[in-house]
Design brief:
- This protein is mostly helical.
- The chain has one domain.
- The protein has 11 helices and no strands.
- Helix 5 packs antiparallel against helix 10 and helix 6 runs parallel beside helix 10.
- The chain is globular.
- The two termini are about 20 Å apart.
Length: about 260
């Protein structure tokens, strides 16, 4: 039986995790449908997005997760991270779409550091490989790929798909007898997450492709970008905290029964 205050926390987590996606947030700020920006993206963008997002996530993993101190329970520095991402977005907005390849690794690193900071505030240890993988998982949440149907885009469905990819990698490692288990598992997870993260990156690029967005618009879009993933992180690590307390099955059943 989940305590009333924890059930309230779970309800708030579900509100965050099932929140309308990044595209609707951007549309409300730029004042026009995101489709107009998507139409302006160069034809080469689709081919480049996979490589770009995977490289940004992998660089961010090494720069953020393995350099952050392990202080579970510490209050996160959300505003400082928001400011850092806004500044990088302002630079990207000033120089236009071509700057995303340079700006994205910077903003992704800051966002991943913010996600890890939120994980710590929920009692997670950044030294734990499971926590590090959970931080990466956040970038797969709240974005629907073209291969998804409604049953595959829910929070627990995404987690299950990511867990399966890591399990398959683990089996391969066990069969091949590789010594360094953590790194190959993380690479496999990053590759899987990058496909979903690319959806949000494309939406961000589409907004920045609209003429006259400029530095101020780029900063605003990047602020929405990090706010989205901070919300996903707060929801994700609330669920994980409750799972540690009550068990995975109990929390999932309660989550799915909630109406938000």
């Amino acid at each position: 039986m989940i305590a009333p205050e924890d059930l309230d926390a779970l309800k708030q987590a579900k509100k965050l995790l099932e929140h309308p996606g990044l595209a609707s947030r951007i549309t409300s700020v730029i004042g026009m449908p995101i489709e107009k920006g998507l139409a302006r993206l160069p034809s080469s963008w689709t081919r480049q997005i996979g490589t770009l997002t995977q490289a940004a996530l992998m660089r961010a993993t090494n720069a953020a997760l393995y350099t952050l101190g392990d202080q579970p329970g510490r209050k996160p520095s959300n505003r400082w991270h928001q400011l850092g991402v806004a500044v990088s977005g302002g630079v990207g907005g000033f120089f236009g779409l071509g700057a995303i390849a340079i700006e994205l690794p910077v903003s992704t690193t800051i966002m991943l550091r913010s996600v890890a900071d939120i994980a710590r505030s929920h009692g997670e240890s950044i030294n734990d490989e499971g926590t590090r993988r959970a931080c990466i998982e956040v970038f797969a949440l709240g974005g629907k790929t073209t291969q998804d149907d409604s049953a595959e885009s829910g929070y627990f469905a995404v987690r299950a798909a990511l867990a399966q990819s890591v399990t398959e990698a683990g089996k391969y490692i066990a069969e091949k007898g590789l010594a360094e288990q953590g790194a190959p598992l993380m690479v496999k997870l990053v590759a899987k997450v990058a496909k979903r993260f690319g959806v949000q990156v494309t939406e961000k690029a589409a907004a920045q492709a609209i003429p006259a967005i400029g530095a101020a618009g780029g900063a605003a879009i990047n602020t929405l970008f990090i706010n989205h993933f901070q919300d996903m992180a707060r929801g994700h690590f609330t669920v994980r905290r409750l799972e540690r307390q009550y068990g995975v099955d109990v929390v999932r059943e309660a989550y799915e029964a909630l109406r938000v």
